[in-house]
Structures are given as C-alpha cells and as structure tokens.
Please model this.
Amino acid sequence: MFNKIILGGIGLLVFIGCNTTVPDAQLVTPSPSLKKASKELPISLIPNLGKAAEAYFSPDGNSFICNAKIADDDAVHHVYTANIDGTNIKRINHKGEDACSYYYPSGDKLIWTSTRDYPDIPVGDWSVPTIYPQGAELYSSDLNGENIVRLTNNMNYDAEVSVSPDGKWILFTRQTDGKLDLWKMKSDGTDEHQITFTDDWQEGGSFYMPDSETILYRAWKKEYDDARAKPMTIFTIKHDGSDLKQITFEDDQTNWAPHPSPDGKHFVFVKVLPPHNFEIYLMNIETGRQTRLTYSDSFDGFPVMSPDGNSMLFSSSRNAKPGDRSLNLFMMDLSTMFK
Model:
C-alpha cells in the first residue's frame, strides 16, 4: 500500500501501497456483462483536503481514512479521516511519519502505520525497498485518534495494512533482512503468522476478498528492488499460504494497487500504459477480462471500491496545475457499471 513509486521520465513521486512494455490493446477486452467505458463515468473532487492520497472507505461508506498534508504543521503525511463530502476532517496522528491505514469492519476502530515511536532514527525512504523505514510499526486507535495501542514491536518495516471483512485478522507486509512477505495476526495484534515464503518475489499491497480467506495482492521480482520502474504481477492466495494463483500474466507490465470488489468477482487496479500513464482498470477474476475506467494523461491510482460497489475513491494529479505534482482525492460513480 503506502510505499512510493517514481514515474520514470516525468519525476512524479507517489505512494505505492506503496515502466514497461504494454500488451496489445486487443488483450484488454471489457467483460460482456459490463458496459464498455468508452469515456469516464461521472467523477467528483473530494473538497477541502489539499494534498491527499490512498483513501479507504469506512464500513458504512460514509467516510474514509487517508494520508494527507492538511494542517499547517504537517511537514510530512499524516493519517486523516473525513466524510466523503470533505467535511468532518480529523487528524488521527501527528507524530513521526504515517503511512497506510484502514478501518476495522466494526467501524469504531482504525489501524495505521507510523514511525511515531522512533523520532531519532533516520526514516529511510518509503520509495526504495532497500531502505524502507525500519521502525514503521502498526497501531490501532479509536475514531478520534485516542486510545492508541501499538500492535507490532520489532523495529522492522510493518506497513501496507488492512483488516479482513469478518474483523478477525489484520493483514500486513513485513520486511525482514530486505525480504518482503505477507503476514497476518489477530485483530488484537496477537498470534502473528507469516503467509508467503518466496525467495524471489516481494509481496505487498494486500487485501482480503469478501470471504475473509482469500487474499489479493501484488508483487515484484526481488531483482527489481532498485529499479525506478518495477514490473508487477497480481496474485491471490489463501491466508494459510495455500492455493497461490497468478491473476495477471503480462510479465513486463506494471499491474499494481489491486483492491477487491464487494461482489468477490472483480477488483480494481492500476495499469501503466506507455509511456508513463497510470490508468485504473476493473478486472473480472473469473474471466480475466479488463475494463478501463480512467482516461487521463495525469496520474490515476490507488483505486478503492465502496462497500456497496457503487463508488470508487482514487487519487489523481488531474486537478494539479502545470508543474505541480500534488495528488487529490476523487470519487467515481460506478452505479451503472453492472447494470
């Protein structure tokens, strides 16, 4: 989730969740059950947030949690929540540097990544896997940023966090000795279990599917750790480490930032088109067919579907002035996609 990626050639720095040859356009075919997106569906800017990215809906779909620079003293990104109309903005943490965050499905708790307990340790670089911030730990809090509980204590990189729909499991990425793997632990931070054990893949950006058993994630080959542009592949795996399946097959393509649909059959993700154009697609897991959702020369990324599947939050530079690389949050109306 909230790592970073540098768009080669244009100098834009954004967070992955932290370029390559694109397959023939004929391979990107809309599913017959979906309306072909010949142009973008209705989009609106989330107001009042300033620089913000990587937002995730609350369980009721009425608010979201994100990383933003809003307050005058925000020298770095911090965790914020807000209503989807841009009101009721709250800063959850103000210490250290914050990264990926998520709601518990109960709707009364938050989980987030921060370096808040290590002010004297060099933060490293969220964009370079070989120097990811060590001491990025996971914390839970209430909706006001109070009653904070530290969930991990290991001085590793623990980030890219989400929670299973049934509320039983926290899913995250841990870096140990330069190796990134998926981990899970119980919702109270106990009973940690490593899920992936691959030697040549760097896994992350993971989310549970609606069954609270299948995990959707992206990975790159470890040989690309120092590359500015990383070919990425999307996979699914059961949370006991079984039933690993490759979902995208363009070996030199960047397929990144997947997020599942509530129907369990689709997911949204980002595909990099030539020369450096980040666009959002919807993919049917069963058929493998893809539908393009955004059509902009600007950066479009971090797509997240609402709990009812009718809306999508995403981050984009389409509203930025020339020369400004800032990202803002937008909402796309998907209510007609499955009709």
